[in-house]
Amino acid sequence: MNHKSHHNTPKRSHQLNRLQLWRTLRNLKIGRKLTLGFGSLVAITLLVVVSSYLAGQVASSNIQRTQDLRVPTTLASANAQENLLKMLSNIRAYLATGEPEYRYRYQQTRQAFEADLAQLERLFSDRDASAQSREQLEELTTSYRDWLALPDQLIALQNNLTDNQPALKILDEQGDASVIVIQREMGLMLEEQELRSPSRANTILLRDMAEFRNTFSLALAALQSYLVTREPAFRFEYNALARANQLVWEQLLENQTGLTDSQRNRMTAIAKQRQAIAPLPEQMFDIVDSDQYRQDLFLFQEQAEPLAESMLNQLKQIVTDQQVDLAQELQAGSRGLALAQWQTLLGGLLAVGVGLAMVKLLQQQIAEPIKRLTEVTSRIQAGDLDAKAPETSKDEVGDLARSFNSMAAQLKESLETLEDRVEERTAELASANEQILALNERLKAENLRMGAELDVARQIQQMILPKAEELENVEGLDIAGYMEPADEVGGDYYDVLQTEGIVTLGIGDVTGHGLESGLLMLMTQTAVRTLQEIREYDLVRFLDTLNRTIYRNVQRMNSDRNLTLTILNYSEGRVSISGQHEETLVVRAEGTVERIDTMDLGLPIGLDDDIAEFIDHAIVELQPGDGIVLYTDGIPEAYNPDKQQYGLERLCEMVSKHWQNPAEQVKQAIIDDVCQFIDTQKVFDDITLLVFKRQDVTTESLPDPANESFLKTLAMQ
Known about the structure:
The chain has helices at 2-27, 30-97, 100-124, 131-159, 161-164, 166-194, 200-229, 232-254, 261-277, 280-288, 295-381, 396-416, 418-463, 468-472, 515-533, 539-556, 648-658, 663-678, 705-716; strands spanning 477-484, 492-499, 502-510, 563-571, 574-578, 584-587, 593-596, 617-621, 627-631, 687-694. It has 717 residues and is of the alpha+beta class. It is flat and about 170 Å long.
């Protein structure tokens, strides 16, 4: 009995500790429970991240070193090998052919090779580069410095035929003087012989002298050709000519009794020079047959090629060493990545285990009490106000259970007095409803009044637009206009005015829409009409006066509206364009469209009180069939349901396509195309279009004095 009791004591103590821990956890606030659970999960995750980071850092370091040093070094070394081989090839080709193209290519590959060396120096200056790599690069750089002087020396030899070919140099330095003496003396002998009597003996001597000179010159030419080309045919030719020359010389010696004293003296001089140059051909042949036939090729073979071979071996060693280092670092990186993967996997499994334990704990500590609390809430909702929530813990769920129990009691008490409060509230709602009905009636009346005002403003705006009969009465021009506001009252403006043979056309766009923009448009029309009626043709004064008028009215209205405006004055085929607005499209008779940017012809109207210094103008000459198209931004900036803009290019294409038709048809074709493009998309901006074409000159009126005054004004401008 005692033994059994002693055996159960530790087990019971352990159970009591677990029960105490469970009660402590149950009474913790939910925030602390979540902090404890998620803190544990975060700690494990952080441990996994740190360990994986450290392992990955090693792998990343190896990979980064491979990417930043090994791979670029290997590529630079391989490129250097390739460029060095190209340098050798180009130098060899230049020495063989003398073509400047190979010399140019050598310079290019030399620059590329030096760039490769510079890149290797930058790479090997990295702290990760080994001392052995730096020593290899130093040896390569030293070899290249030794090599660097050789190509220029080889090129200089190739360009100097005498210094490059020792055999030619012997001929030039040792034989040239004798050759000159022989040719000169023989020439003098021939001249003297030609003056002697034409006897048979003298004729034979003259023939032998001429043949001696010819065979001597030909033998010399064949000798020079052989020395330059090493072609056996030239040597064979030289030997044959030299024997022929020797035979002729022997004949001259046999017949020298028929020579004059001066000719015999010259023969003596020639014999002396022949003896001087006699051993030279064999010396030159020995040189031509040796490896030193050409100094540039000999120097290239003896010095340039071995030094280049040494550099190639050095580059090969660098490439080999870097490839070995590259393979080692890749293996180390792979091992580091594998270690990081295993650490991540193990840490992930540990985090999953802790997470599952947290889920179970939180379900027991939070989810289950909330579920019981929800059941109680459903019972209260069903009308069981006597339902009680279990108050089993001291956390927020326990507090919420106590609040529910208290709320249920209060709700039961409130239901008893609910009917009285409902009646009271119903009376309050009835009173508020009467006030809302009265307010609705007032709003209806206000909307009717505002609608009537906007309708009047729209009618006024339409009334001041130029009528069709007015446009038809403009002599010499075929005009068509169109304006459709986006709202009840638009902010676009266009007008066509005619006074004493001068046609003034204007188009503008007020910022914004509605009544305020429409009012500013009406002001602009009135001001333009006034200035046109008082014969104000000076463009600067015209727009400056108009701007001051609009600006001061805008200030009085306390508004921030302004407008872009372009004014055109037309008379006898000449148009003056002034003011800043959209581009002006000048259309020639065959349909060609010229675009005039008005950005530098003025400033927006009403933006500043003085714009005179910014006003400029452009002059356009219109021939019969030519014309101008004016528009506001509502056309090119119109959107279709796919959110695409109509665009100025499409407008120009439509104008060009339909220009052969009357202005009204051109206008209608453009408007139809815009409407088809917009389709069901809402129109956000006013659309205005003005088209006019110059008619045949026979339909235009004769000039009047006012017209001539306007043309003089244009000429002065």
